[in-house]
Specification:
- By secondary structure, this protein is of the alpha/beta class.
- It has two domains: about 170 residues, Glycogen Phosphorylase B (Rossmann fold); about 200 residues, Rossmann fold.
- The protein is built from 18 helices and 13 strands.
- Strand 2, helix 2 and strand 3 form a beta-alpha-beta unit.
- It starts with 10 loop residues before the first strand and ends in a 5-residue tail after the last helix.
């Protein structure tokens, strides 16, 4: 529980539910700390936020659950964490609460806090433009201000009468200084001229359980066509690494030229010619790094049926949604077979001109999203720290 001292600065509650939110939260906390040097931060975060000074009261991994079936299985534990966190904040009364993404967890908590006069800012709009648009009513009840990362989202909230600030996408700022392909390969000790494929099967246990064997089988087929290919697999923690290693063992794939990495996802994508990636924030990261990719996803059949029936657009991957067309292939659920995934990757490896066209399109996208997001988000939050906004 955060300690309270009369001489200390304002308490800021903050919650992120997965690694992508932790990355955004770390940058935001550092920006806020510069503007409010005595501020204290408490809630839920991962290594980035903890390193920036957040006291994480519960493990972030407990919230990293995706899909209806998976959420139901962990429902009681997640609701218990939210209830305990709510009680802590009702007692401690932070100057402002910041929910970073994770809308299914954060919106309910934000609503409870806002109802008793604690301002609630939500950072990263739920994708109501892609599916579940009816959530706009809950958002109106729950948040004091929405911070959006895509320019087209602002109009949605203005029309709904919800205070909104467009801040740009933090990842576009963070990745502006990413290493070049040559620099990334040198850092990873990969031959400059070898074909390189980065494999990103996800950051959640459930994603590895669905995709690890498929990715390994696809990697075998890619290697059969390109014997000198180098395969990079960045994994976020020990559990996901163990699941991927188990898939390698099951398929007896010891002959693959494969490098498993703890983290270093951006370096792996920067080094690659093509990225095979599970749908999620990593697809946007690959686009901001200007890399051609194949987007895929698998989940339990019931979860897929529910989510697929509620989406409004033909695209799932963020790069295609932002472009408004299929710039890169998407192979989802039953279409996500090793044969189809490897064929799509091989096609991109062979077609140099197509890869370059994709990279140019993504370079333009990165420029449009680069606005100094963490600093702009901090400026939007500052009025709540001095009591000037509610």
């Amino acid at each position: 529980m955060p300690s309270s001292h009369a001489s200390a600065g304002p308490l800021i509650g903050i919650v992120a539910g997965e690694p992508s939110g932790d990355l955004l939260g770390g940058a935001l906390v550092r920006a806020l700390a510069k503007r409010s040097p005595g501020a204290r931060f408490a809630g839920i975060g991962g290594p980035q936020m903890i390193a920036a000074g957040v006291e994480s009261l519960f493990p972030m991994e407990k919230l990293s659950v995706r899909g209806y079936v998976e959420v139901i299985r962990h429902y009681r534990e997640i609701v218990g964490i939210r209830r305990n966190l709510r009680d802590i904040f009702l007692a401690e009364r932070p100057a402002v609460f910041i929910g970073i993404d994770a809308p299914d967890f954060n919106l309910g908590l934000e609503g409870d806090l806002k109802a008793v006069g604690i301002p609630a800012v939500h950072y990263v709009s739920p994708s109501i433009w892609a599916w579940r648009g009816g959530r706009i009513r809950k958002i109106r009840r729950s948040v004091s201000r929405m911070l959006t990362v895509f320019p087209f989202e602002t109009e949605i909230y203005e029309k709904a009468g919800i205070p909104v600030s467009y801040v740009g996408h933090p990842l576009a700022d963070m990745l502006a200084s990413a290493p070049s392909r040559e620099e990334a390969r040198a850092g990873l000790r990969i031959p400059a001229g070898a074909p390189v494929v980065a494999l990103l099967p996800g950051s959640r246990i459930s994603e590895l359980e669905s995709l690890a064997d498929v990715f390994v089988a696809a990697a075998e087929r890619i290697t059969a066509e390109f014997p000198d290919v180098r395969l990079l697999v960045p994994l976020v923690n020990r559990q996901t690494r163990e699941l991927f290693e188990a898939a390698l063992y099951r398929r007896q794939s010891g002959e693959l030229e494969i490098k498993l990495l703890f983290g270093h996802a951006h370096e792996a994508m920067a080094a690659a010619d093509v990225v095979l990636v599970a749908s999620g924030t990593a697809t946007l990261e690959a686009a901001l790094l200007q890399r051609a990719m194949v987007i895929t996803y698998r989940m339990p059949r019931l979860s897929w049926w529910i989510m697929n029936s509620r989406r409004y657009q033909p695209w799932v991957g963020l790069p295609n949604i932002l472009a408004g067309e299929f710039v890169v292939p998407e192979l989802l659920q039953d279409a996500a077979t090793p044969e189809a995934l490897s064929a799509a990757v091989i096609d991109l490896l062979r077609d140099h001109d197509r890869r370059k066209a994709i990279e140019r399109r993504f370079a333009q996208m990165a420029a449009e999203l680069r606005h100094g997001a963490a600093e702009r988000a901090a400026e939007a939050i500052l009025p709540y720290l001095d009591g000037g906004a509610r």
